[in-house]
Amino acid sequence: MENLHDKRKVYEKSQLIESEIKQNPIEQFRDWFLEASENPMISEANAMAVSTVEEDGCPRTRMVLLKAYTHEGFIFYTNYNSRKGKAIEDNHKACLHFFWPNLERQIIIKADLEKVAENLSDGYFHSRPKGSQLGAVVSPQSQVIPNKEFLEEKLKELEKVYENTEVPRPANWGGYIARPYEIEFWQGRPNRLHDRIIYELEDLDWKISRLAP
């Protein structure tokens, strides 16, 4: 057994103070996200974990890319027939998680998910590189396949079919918007006395509280 007891890091880069934060969590997210995006040590600031609950009651987490955010919520795209898509269909709640270790920060978002309008899915799908579009058509995401060559052969076939024409967006591929009702901002601090500020939606207003680390 490898002993990890001494693997510790001192967190001291910043702090989170009530007098300095935004009253709306989306605006606070925007400030932190811009800092993460501009940090040369963070290659994909929009990488986030999405956790859903499957039929057996066990959460399942995977990394996806945030593609847009507004005051209404956070948008990402996927195959609706994937494991995450089926989990969301059965239980519309999910947890999003951003972790930026170079800034010693993380954000935890509890949200209700729903599909975005089809025109938004169409617009994003056709903004992607053609190879990515074909990959979305080819892959029966989360299903068992016989081997790697199965997908590669299908891709070659579709490359010929759509060589000189637009790739139609599959009906089972599109976006979700995660509408938050709770957002927690975590800032690492010395002696493990981390700053945790939580926003909770009550009616149409956000209640702000500090949590013990």
TrEMBL record:
Top-level EC class: oxidoreductase
Keyword Flavoprotein in annotation: yes
Catalytic activity line of the entry: pyridoxine 5'-phosphate + O2 = pyridoxal 5'-phosphate + H2O2; pyridoxamine 5'-phosphate + O2 + H2O = pyridoxal 5'-phosphate + H2O2 + NH4(+)
PROSITE patterns linked to this entry: PYRIDOX_OXIDASE
Cofactor(s) this protein cannot do without: FMN
Single GO molecular function: pyridoxamine phosphate oxidase activity
Domain of life assignment: Bacteria
Binding sites annotated in the UniProt record for substrate: K67, Y124, R128, S132, R192, L193, H194
Cofactor note: Binds 1 FMN per subunit.
Residue ranges of domain Pyridoxamine 5'-phosphate oxidase N-terminal in the record: 41-161
Residue sites binding FMN per the record: 62-67, 77-78, 83-84, 106, 141-142, 186, 196
Keyword Repeat: no
HAMAP family per the UniProt record, alphabetical: PdxH
Designated name of the protein: Pyridoxine/pyridoxamine 5'-phosphate oxidase
